[in-house]
Design brief:
The strands form two sheets. A four-stranded antiparallel beta sheet has the order 2-3-1-4, covered by helices on one side. It has a three-stranded parallel beta sheet with strand order 6-5-7, with no helix packed on it. The chain is 53% helix and 11% strand.
Length: 325
């Protein structure tokens, strides 16, 4: 019986006299990706978390005048196991998502940065919704991930022209003492990685830093320190974005909260594991970018937000450290 799965099975009769409650429970079952064995019998691959979700639904159904029984059982054999797995096939969902990306590509031209940011946030949520109930991801999930990353890259070229390409190599450890009162340069019309990197430079590396905002990377003077563009002194290396490269370069990994902040910047800049605070920061960034009359003003406004987020992440980091002790 190797590799045979165990299943949580919910047998129910929805309330007959309460159409609103009936619809609410049906939507909840669908949102959690339950497969339908037949009318009134729903299935999920077993885990403690999923079974608890079904238990809460069962209790709610009973409280609203329905009937519900929660069971747990393994597949009888490999054939039945494979049959049950096919009930969770998300290929159609992924195909529809990829089609929506293709259709949306045709509408990008002429949209404002704020609209593009909202659009990307909505599509990211759609993608994450499918992934959350894809209990047996396969080729369709991989194709959708590739298509979405390509779409994100396309939107980034509109939001942030001149995004750097990652280079290979190690990150040398540098002394902050040798990087004081410098002039730093990056592309104008700041976006997430650039604004966070500028904040990091001024807060933790070079408090007297001066910044210039480039119309093009080619306009960067040879005597200044460039960041976040191809050929800059500090830019993407491997899978690290510029913010993360700066943290590693100047030995700031032990500064409470900066690694968590780096995870958020990484997720917003090139994708990756979702960070709960990311969508809120992205929305504030888009709004501030619309309002700010200059990149200096934008950096000033977003520095307040980054100060607060850093304090939040630092507090969480210290709390987690105390728990481990």
């Amino acid at each position: 019986m190797k590799n045979i799965l165990t299943w949580s099975i919910l047998v129910l009769t929805l309330p007959t006299e309460n159409a609103t409650a009936r619809m609410r429970f049906w939507r909840a079952l669908k949102a959690r990706g339950c497969a339908v064995l037949r009318d009134g019998i729903y299935l999920l691959p077993y885990s403690d978390e999923r079974e608890e979700i079904l238990r809460e639904l069962a209790n709610g159904i009973i409280e609203n005048g329905g009937a519900a029984h929660l069971l747990r059982a393994p597949s009888l054999d490999a054939s039945q196991d494979a049959e049950f797995r096919t009930l969770f096939d998300r290929s159609d969902d992924y195909a529809n998502f990829v089609r929506s990306l293709s259709d949306t590509r045709k509408t990008l031209s002429g949209q404002s940065n704020s609209d593009l940011t909202k659009l990307l946030r909505r599509l990211r949520k759609d993608h994450e919704t499918i992934r959350a109930i894809d209990y047996f991801p396969g080729d369709a999930a991989t194709r959708a991930e590739v298509a979405f990353q390509e779409f994100i890259a396309l939107v980034d070229t509109v939001l942030s022209p001149g995004e750097p390409h990652p280079t290979e190599g190690s990150i040398p450890r540098l002394s902050r003492n040798e990087y004081q009162s410098q002039t730093w340069a990056t592309r104008q019309r700041l976006w997430v990685d650039r604004v966070a990197s500028a904040w990091l430079i001024r807060r933790f590396i070079d408090p007297q830093a001066r910044f210039i905002w480039l119309t093009s990377p080619d306009a960067c003077p040879s005597e200044v320190l460039g960041f976040d563009f191809d050929g800059a002194a500090f830019t993407h290396i491997g899978d690290r974005v510029t913010f993360e490269v700066l943290v590693a370069s100047f030995g700031l990994e032990d500064e409470p909260g900066l690694l968590r902040l780096g995870e958020m910047v990484h997720a917003l800049d090139v994708g990756g594991s979702p960070v709960p605070e990311a969508s809120g920061f992205e929305a504030v960034m888009a709004g501030a970018r619309q309002r700010a009359s200059s990149d200096d003003q934008l950096l000033e406004e977003m520095s307040v937000v980054l100060d607060s987020l850093h304090a939040h992440f630092a507090m969480d980091t210290k709390s987690e450290t105390r728990k481990r002790r």
